[in-house]
Every structure is written in structure tokens, then in C-alpha cells.
Design goal:
alpha/beta, single chain, four-stranded antiparallel β-sheet, 8 helices, Rossmann fold, five-stranded parallel β-sheet, Arc Repressor Mutant, subunit A
Length: 230
């Protein structure tokens, strides 16, 4: 029997929460709700959810504060619910470690597609544990454990950051365009002015740079990114 995926919905709009809970329950998900940042963080830390839907504007603690506190202890996938057209919210959320974002008001089917893209990724690696490891300079990536180290120090990566790094490492020496990264990692095409991939790559770079002076990822202007073999 297939296990249901669990979602934590953190949003102060109780009517929206009720509608989304009904919608996702009908799609086979288990949904828990919280209406304040404090309550949401407590639930997120206490229980193991497959995914968190996190609104930015929340009472007590805003979504950014919740995400920042969560990332200290857990790498649970997070989709931020942001205000339409607010680039700052989207970029800041991605910098803090959000896996994806969707602006309000959103189409329920689009949100479902984003959620399923992440849960499919989680399921894939639960069911397939290849023994592949990649070692380039001081960086070592272990596919089975979905982990990476630099100089023996663990890189604290979100699920999406790991996927970006894995894609670039396994295609080392080749330029990978942003559209390919978005489709393979986020499960959706990149739209104009969407900086999601830029921010995820930037986060990976910063985390590697904290442990090594070696340059691993190079930007090829107008083309994409390349993981350097030498």
C-alpha cells in the first residue's frame, strides 16, 4: 500500500487553508494546518512532513523567520507562498533555503504540480539507492545518502540544492542551461524573470566556498552553468 505524503500548511488565511486541505486530501495527501508562524515552526520541528507550504505574511513570526529557524535543524522541502510580483520575497526566500515559490493568487492545479514534482523526487530516491559516488577535487557526492562533503566537511544542502549540485556534478565539464536545470530539478519550465535556479546555484556556491577556495561552478553568460573538472 502506498504511503500518503504529508503536508504542513502554514497560512493565517483560514478559509484558504480549509480549501487547500480539502483539495489536497482529495488528491491523497495528509494535511496539517497552522495559522501562526510560531505554531507552524513548532509543528514543523516536532513532526516529520514530506513538504511544507509556507506563507510569507504570518502573525507572531513571518515566513522568513520560520524558514530561517527551520533550516537550522531540518531540510524539509518548503514551497513559499508569496505576494504576486514581489521579487524581494521570492529571492529572499530562496536565499534562506526555500525549494520553490508560487505567487498568490495561484491556480490550485499549478500548486499541486509543484507539490507533486517535489514528492516524486523524494519517492524516487527512497526507491532507488544507487551506489554512485562522484569525487572532483575536494568535493565528494554520495548518491545513496544524498549527501556531499568538501574536505571531509558535510555540506548542509536543501533537497533542491542537492539536486542542482548532483545534476552539475554528473554532467561535469558540460554546460547545462537553466531551462534544463529547472525542468529536471523543479519539475517545471523556467519562466521569464524567474531567478529560482540562479539563487539555488548561488546558495550551493556559497556553501562550497565556506569550505574550499577552489572554484567548482562557473557561470557561462547566456548559456548556463558548468561544473569544472579541473
Amino acid at each position: 500500500m502506498t504511503m500518503k505524503h504529508s503536508i504542513l500548511l502554514i497560512d493565517d488565511d483560514q478559509e484558504l487553508c480549509s480549501l487547500l486541505k480539502e483539495y489536497f486530501t482529495a488528491e491523497g495527501f495528509e494535511v496539517a494546518m497552522a495559522h501562526t508562524g510560531t505554531e507552524g515552526l513548532q509543528l514543523a520541528l516536532k513532526q516529520n512532513f514530506d513538504l511544507i507550504l509556507l506563507d510569507v505574511m504570518l502573525p507572531e513570526m513571518d515566513g522568513f523567520e520560520v524558514l530561517k529557524a527551520l533550516r537550522v535543524q531540518k531540510m524539509t522541502p518548503v514551497i513559499m507562498l508569496t505576494a504576486k510580483g514581489d521579487d524581494f520575497d521570492r529571492i529572499f526566500g530562496l536565499e534562506l533555503g526555500a525549494d520553490d515559490y508560487i505567487p498568490k493568487p495561484f491556480n490550485h492545479r499549478e500548486l499541486l504540480a509543484r507539490v507533486k514534482a517535489i514528492t516524486r523526487r523524494v519517492d524516487h530516491y527512497k526507491q532507488h539507492s544507487p551506489d554512485d559516488t562522484f569525487t572532483i577535487h575536494q568535493l565528494r557526492l554520495d548518491v545513496a545518502s544524498r549527501s556531499a562533503t568538501v574536505n571531509g566537511e558535510v555540506l548542509s544542502l536543501t533537497g533542491t540544492e542537492y539536486e542542482v549540485l548532483h545534476l552539475l556534478v554528473r554532467t561535469a565539464g558540460e554546460v547545462v542551461d537553466k531551462q534544463t536545470i529547472s525542468r529536471q530539478v523543479l519539475g517545471r519550465p523556467l519562466v521569464p524573470y524567474d531567478r529560482s535556479i540562479d539563487m539555488h546555484v548561488s546558495n550551493v556556491r556559497k556553501k562550497i566556498a565556506a569550505l574550499s577556495e577552489h572554484t567548482y561552478i562557473k557561470t557561462i553568460r547566456g548559456a548556463g552553468y558548468i561544473f569544472l573538472k579541473a
